[in-house]
Amino acid sequence: MLWARYEKPYVPLADICEEYFGLCSKRAKSAAAAQELPVPVVRLSDSKKSPYMVKLSDLARYLDSRHELYAEDWRKVRGVKHSSVC
Description:
Elements (H helix, E strand, L loop, with lengths): L1 H5 L3 E3 H9 L3 H9 L8 E2 L8 E4 H23 L8
Antiparallel strand pairs: 1-3, 2-3
């Protein structure tokens, strides 16, 4: 679904920071510089002015891991045994 939405392998951090990390662009840039985000970020050039980019496959893995964490909590609360089908 991420690929269908963004149609490219890398997306600017500024385009996704609020929706997926709950951070404004300024705070996201600061967190990226300090490597504090839950996904790796890259600059596609050596310029400090180059925007931080996030690889969609890294974002997808992060979202999947968050889903599994909360799904496991949900299963425990509901008394549902783990299923390989999600």
